[in-house]
Amino acid sequence: VVRPLREPGYREALRRKAERARKRRLRLQRRKQEAKAAKEREAKIDQWRAKCIQEVEEKNRERELKAAADSVLSEVRKKQADTKRMVDILRALEKLRKLRKEAAGRKGVCPPPSADEAFENQVESLKTLLKNRTELYEAEERALRVMLEGEQEEERKREMEKKQKKEREKLLQQKLEIDSKLFGDPDEFPLAHLLQPFREYYLQAEHSVAALIQIRHEWDQYLVPADHPEGSCVPPGWVLPSLPTNDTWATAVR
């Protein structure tokens, strides 16, 4: 068993073999990481593409719905205008018959009462029909306006949600920057895992109501007005360290 170890060049060959195995493992790990990164990039690209397609489809649907509603609303308004024109024509006919009846009366010609009754019945029938149509068109217009207002309200809500999302992302980015200054960059700082207990300690109030109450109780003991001569009020957030004032301090911070 020991004899091969004593042969000249065996250890060098064994070292080369181990080095080849190590390089092979590194290549496999690198390929695996590259494949994983490529899949993640493809997944992000697919997610971004799907999001863009969904936004375009939603905008197209909203545009088509608004165009259809505007078209129907325009048609309803046209019907309302036609109905109003019919009402005006009917009033003009009543006025014309009255004038003609007065002119005939001055000449001694009087129509029979049955003719007046037939004319009035016909006029009342037309007025009732036009009134029903007017009420129907007004109801359609109100319904369309409610639908359009609902779409506009939904659009305002979506814009507000987008704005709030951007604000949350901005606040999250600021929080990450502050955490990076206080605890180090988790992607670059090699001892980030050692700081996990401290992170859990400082963030325990976000996960436990009892811890939140206890921390607030301890902090409330030291709450004082801003003009108190023996203290100051508790700051609303993290107190970031000031920049180094000399080279020695700067070296220690780095």
From TrEMBL:
Domain of life: Eukaryota
Keyword set includes Ribosomal protein: no
CC per GO annotation: U12-type spliceosomal complex
Renumbered residue ranges of the record's region Disordered: 13-40
UniProt feature, compositional bias: Basic residues: 17-30
Keywords, ordered alphabetically: Coiled coil
Entry-linked Pfam families: PDCD7
Identification of the protein by name: Programmed cell death protein 7
Organism name: Aptenodytes forsteri
